[in-house]
Write a structure and sequence with these properties.
about 160 residues, alpha+beta, Aminopeptidase, seven-stranded mixed β-sheet, globular
């Protein structure tokens, strides 16, 4: 499998491919977080926040199969928030996560957002490394997510 086989498109957050990715994402969080994960207790954005005009939901597909996802929503004037970044374990290491992140940042620029923020759990060390190497810097907590240990922000040029 090669990174060139990856097709990234924006879709409805209610699309079956989005639902497959989100279900796998939440299942993985429940397994990786030592405290488990309660989808209902997450307190995060509603999936409708990831549909236009307020946001966008993207999916990476390889040979027509969902292999990753990510979402952007307008958090506050001029600031976007990236959520639900996930890459299938079968394709990690191919640059899919970086590509998803770049597409979401481009979407934020198109919406004239000046900054993008995100939060992550300390057990998602690969994600944290991706974000830091992509130019995200630590900021004070901007939400009360019970699963966030790191809050990051990146200015968009």
């Amino acid at each position: 499998m090669r990174a060139s086989s990856v097709v990234v498109t924006s879709i409805s957050a209610h699309d079956p491919a989005a639902c497959v990715c989100l279900d796998r994402y939440f299942d993985e969080l429940a397994t990786r977080f030592p405290e488990g994960f309660d989808r209902e207790g997450d307190g995060a954005a509603d999936v409708d926040d990831f549909n236009p005009p307020a946001g966008v939901f993207i999916v990476a597909q390889i040979f027509g199969e969902p292999a990753g996802c990510g979402a952007l929503r307008t958090f506050s004037p001029g600031i976007g928030e990236i959520k639900r970044m996930w890459v299938s374990p079968e394709v990690r290491g191919l640059g899919v996560g970086r590509r998803l992140l770049e597409v979401l940042e481009d979407e934020a620029r198109e919406r004239k957002l000046r900054f993008v923020r995100l939060d992550t759990h300390s057990s998602l060390f690969q994600a944290l490394q991706l974000y830091r190497t992509a130019g995200y810097r630590d900021i004070p907590p901007y939400n009360a997510s019970p699963y966030a240990h790191h809050w990051l922000e990146k200015p968009l040029a």
